[in-house]
Every structure is written in C-alpha cells, then in structure tokens.
Specification:
Blueprint: E1 2-5, E2 15-21, E3 28-29, E4 34-39, E5 44-48, E6 53-58, E7 65-67, E8 71-75
Antiparallel strand pairs: 1-8, 2-4, 2-7, 3-6, 4-5, 6-8
Amino acid sequence: MTEVKLPPIAEGVNKANVSYWHHAAGDNIKEGEDLVELVTDKATFNLPAPASGILKEILVNEGDEVKVGQVLAKVE
C-alpha cells in the first residue's frame, strides 16, 4: 500500500486546499498521472500519483484543507 502525502510545496507554504480529485476510489491509476488538484494562496497545481495501482481510499474531500505530510489517499 502506498500513501499519497502532500509534499513540501514552497518555502513558507505548509498547507493547501483540495480542489478536485481526478479519480474516484476504485479507479485504476498510473504512476505520474494527475491524481488531485490542490490550491494554495500562491498557486494551483496537480499532485501526480506516486505509484500505479488501484486508488483504494480517498481520505480528504474536495474543499478540505490539508497540511504538508498529511496522507490524502492510499494506492494499492
């Protein structure tokens, strides 16, 4: 099982808001493809899937605020 975590973003930025999930739980995903769109007060960016497999669980909802290091989802 691979955990999808919010990586360090930029100096002084330690949180982001989940804007849009590109996949739903149960979807087959490929490493490197866009998984979730995140928004900070400085930028909007897509977080790529860290591994190929099945998106087993999404732990945060669209609109939620997440912190650097927080687990967003799990890939099996």
